[in-house]
Amino acid sequence: MLLPTCSSLLGFSYQPEKILSYEVGAKTEWLDRRLRLNATGFIYDYTNLQVVQVIVPGLTSIGNAAKARIRGAELESVGKVTEHLTLTANLALLSAKYTSYPQDPLSPAIIAAVGNSPKYNPITKTYNAAGNYLDSAPKSSFTLGAQYDQPFIWGNLSARLEYYWQDKIYFDPTNVLAQGQAAYGLVNLNLGYTSLDAKWDARLIARNLADKQYSMAVLDSSTTFASEGLAGPPRTVLLRVTRNW
């Protein structure tokens, strides 16, 4: 369900965002193709970056930050340790900041949290978010994985264990701690069978195996931060069977 926006309800409008991107990368193979290393670096320069904010539960506002810059690097590695065991490791580093956002509109709860900040303008009730991190942009994240494949006469059995970790993130341009999520990690497990002719595939998938509690968004009420928001999926176990023709 789409939430109504403050902009549409009040008849306001926002500008289209523009991006100028630069990217460079390399894909390499080593040790007789048993080790693959891929590296990418990028810079994104945004103008009129569109920012979606929750004013109250059920009502969002879309506005434009003046400018933002994202600089990042990603490293992907895949190593064939033995005939059956494969290890993977992926690392992402990110610097994503508003370079200009002089009038970030605030809800009453945010005003209460940043009212004493020199970046807060009590006349316009806005906040200068220049230099702050973009929403949901972790400084670093990584994934570690190990997969074991065992072929046999009727097909292939596989087991994959994966760990994902990400740094803290914020859900508001003010970067107030009350509207953020601390660093967390997730463990996922995948057990699979694929038939010899590849027509049948059955998998037992467990996501967030440790049942880690984390937030994907935090909402605030008209005057105080509420304990409600969008929670990350809890431990989820499913059986998936696929038939290919």
Q: What is shown here, in short?
A:
The chain is mainly beta.
SSE topology sketch:
Blueprint lengths: L5 H5 L7 E13 L4 E22 L2 E22 L4 E16 L3 E2 L2 H7 L5 E2 L4 E2 L12 E13 L2 E12 L2 E2 L9 E2 L2 E12 L4 E8 L7 E6 L4 E7 L4 E8 L2
Antiparallel strand pairs: 1-2, 2-3, 3-4, 4-8, 5-7, 6-7, 8-9, 9-12, 10-11, 12-13, 13-16, 14-15
Describe this structure as you would to a colleague.
The radius of gyration is 23 Å and the shape is elongated. The two termini are 35 Å apart. Strands 1-2-3-4-8-9-12-13-16 form a nine-stranded antiparallel beta sheet, with no helix packed on it. The protein has one domain (6-243): Maltoporin, Chain A (Beta Barrel), CATH 2.40.170.20. It has 245 residues and is mainly β. Residues 1-5 and 7-11 have low confidence and may be disordered. The chain contains two helices and 16 strands. Helices cover 5% and strands 61% of the residues. A hairpin with a 2-residue loop joins strand 2 and strand 3.
